[in-house]
Specification:
The protein has a single domain, classed as Acetylglutamate kinase-like (Carbamate kinase, 3-Layer(aba) Sandwich). It has 9 helices and 17 strands. It has helices at residues 18-37, 49-64, 74-99, 135-145, 172-180, 211-221, 253-261, 270-283, 298-302; strands at 4-9, 41-46, 106-108, 112-114, 127-133, 148-151, 157-161, 168-169, 184-187, 193-198, 201-204, 226-231, 236-238, 246-248, 250-252, 289-294, 308-311. It has an 8-stranded mixed β-sheet, sandwiched between helices. Strands 8-4-10-11 form a 4-stranded mixed β-sheet. The chain has a 3-stranded antiparallel β-sheet with strand order 5-7-6. A hairpin with a 7-residue loop joins strand 13 (236-238) and strand 14 (246-248). Helix 2 (49-64) packs across helix 3 (74-99). It binds adenosine-5'-diphosphate and phosphoric acid mono(formamide)ester. This is Carbamate kinase.
Amino acid sequence: MAKRIVIALGGNALGDSPEKQLQLVKNTAKSIVDLIKEGHEIMIGHGNGPQVGMINLAMEYASQGNVNTPYMPFPECGAMSQGYIGYHLQQAINNELKMQNIDKICSTVITEVVVNKDDEGFSNPTKPIGAFYSKEESEKISKEKGYTFIEDSGRGYRRVVASPKPVEIVESKIIKNIIDGGNIVITVGGGGVPVIKTDLGLKGVPAVIDKDLSSAKLALELEADMLIILTAVEKVSINYNKPNQIDLSILTVEDADKYIKEGHFAKGSMLPKVEACKNFIVNSKKDSIAIITSLEKAAEAIEGKTGTIIKK
Ligand SMILES: Nc1ncnc2c1ncn2[C@@H]1O[C@H](COP(=O)(O)OP(=O)(O)O)[C@@H](O)[C@H]1O
Ligand SMILES: NC(=O)OP(=O)(O)O
């Protein structure tokens, strides 16, 4: 049966350069168009951690050098990342739709997401962005620029920035129009550009919202049947990266709470994915499903053959 599906695509699954990303999105587009062919309605949210870090670093470097480049504020870097990732994804999906003779179109909505100005995320940076560094490199950059770094799930050290929780998707009516019109939308890129409400209107703030939490919000607002979080691992594990690692096929909300307390899911990577799925499942008015798996395994996971299914 045709389902309304929100797909949250990991920023790391998009590669670490525009050239690599353009290649990788071709496979992503094929998997997504296969789902569209089966009649499913698709909304795509995506990450931007590596990309927004790269843009921010490049713009900062250029503005400090001799080239005539102004300082680029962080929210603008986030909007730039939505634009170029969305451009690659929509081009690849539209090419694939045309090749398969499907009369639909995919478009990116530059999306703002309201956050609370007093969110505790502003005083405790947790969102890893940009490239991975060695411990020594990260300490050197930290001294030079005052950035905070953390060790990211055994993969190296990364800069972390504030990550407030998503409160409201500003462009949700337009997103609904696109979906109700039978087309495909790319939205809440990088979790959405974070904005706060002021007396003068919306105002961008320097932070990166977790795209899994924004995708769950989108799935709830648009009454989706399914939230699929696609990342680099096929299943969620307990004792991750340890000799006694156990991969989970099913994760109940009750077990998720227990494992969260025991510290099995890393902050800024697996924890927000599990929390996003939990939030969607618990608050959905429908008998909805949430799945965490890898891009390559998406179709199999929808058929219930792999991935971690999060259940009530
Ligand atoms: N308990 C866990 N189970 C599986 N993966 C985990 C776990 N804890 C941390 N991870 C790491 O989290 C990563 C996914 O987070 P991240 O790379 O931030 O996602 P994204 O694909 O959204 O960029 C996995 O590739 C893995 O390295
Ligand atoms: N914004 C965001 O959640 O990005 P990643 O998926 O790259 O962490």
